[in-house]
Amino acid sequence: xxxxxxxxxxxxxxxxxxxxxxxxxxxxxxxxxxxxxxxxxxxxxxxxxxxxxxxxxxxxxxxxxxxxxxxxxxxxxxxxxxxxxxxxxxxxxxxxxxxxxxxxxxxxxxxxxxxxxxxxxxxxxxxxxxxxxxxxxxxxxxxxxxxxxxxxxxxxxxxxxxxxxxxxxxxxxxxxxxxxxxxxxxxxxxxxxxxxxxxxxxxxxxxxxxxxxxxxxxxxxxxxxxxxxxxxxxxxxxxxxxxxxxxxxxxxxxxxxxxxxxxxxxxxxxxxxxxxxxxxxxxxxxxxxxxxxxxxxxxxxxxxxxxxxxxxxxxxxxxxxxxxxxxxxxxxxxxxxxxxxxxxxxxxxxxxxxxxxxxxxxxxxxxxxxxxxxxxxxxxxxxxxxxxxxxxxxxxxxxxxxxxxxxxxxxxxxxxxxxxxxxxxxxxxxxxxxxxxxxxxxxxxxxxxxxxxxxxxxxxxxxxxxxxxxxxxxxxxxxxxxxxxx
Length: 486
What we know:
alpha/beta; nine-stranded mixed beta sheet; Maf protein; 486 residues; pyruvate-formate lyase- activating enzyme; globular
């Protein structure tokens, strides 16, 4: 949907709302919108200590408009005025779009990747749980089920935050290689058929960065709270490469207070008994074995080279081999799947009794071949049935995030059995502590003011560039940015 702005500059706010409610369309800003053209016109102005906004929308032959206003406190500074303007503009667009939608969005007008973060900050500033529930309902029109998800995730985040050590940092190691790239994937993951020859030079470069990052933490006496090895699929490394990387972590990082060490094993075709033994020997405490779906036809359709039976066999081998906590990922909204298929996948995975189960909703990205394709419907009632089944088995929602262009405007939720929540996932998603990210595409985060301020430092996106620039990357890791101690 094309849109234009009049009287304000809150471009991101209008676009976020359009993307959230109409995820299957492109949304482009234009300088003018003729009266007879489809699109959204967003206007804003001030009068008598208030900010007012009106949104006018035309879709086909249907026209709607809505107006909303907010009082501006006399004490408001420039940043607060911008925040009030953004909220007012977005709310007007939301209310104008609402009559044109097939279903009322369960997240209402609340946009953003981390809905539990503002909830956590509101509680920290003195708001009660009951007050927070009312605020999410009245301020953003969030449904009861999603308010509950949001508040429970915020509570897990606060429990984790209260247990953090001073200056605690998390470590991420990126392995950007996969056996084959799934059709829905937008990550920088490189299939082994084309890029397998780069794994060894990439491993050598990563070992250099591990050494430099370890020295940085040791010299600054920074405690390491968790290690997370993700991808891609880290178990595309062969046994020798995996041994060398894990040995380097042991050698260069003090893990005395480290709460967990996670390796995303991911695809069953990359997991061997020897690799599981290597992980056990190096203190890996958590792994992921990710089916995405338990429907073999859907797996073939998205380019996964394994079956549901392979997943079950791999899971049983991992249980026999080590004392790992195991997470399993599922994706709702995959092409060829349906409501009954998703619920059946949840039931089959839950029957294995993994410690964590994460349900993602398909998000179409520019880097994936499915971008802007027809999504069909992913009704929230389908996810609610999945959530109810898991909660009936003793799983609790513990972290939550959303993405642009997500099917049904829904969410990704991690569920855990009591006492098995991932420390890294909570710290990363809620931006509770610094994260040092190693490898290509890694984005380190330096967090301050309870996650209100984030300074990001990105490594080169692609493995070839990362390998070529490893000397300068190592030098950067040896000195904290902007004179700040990491």
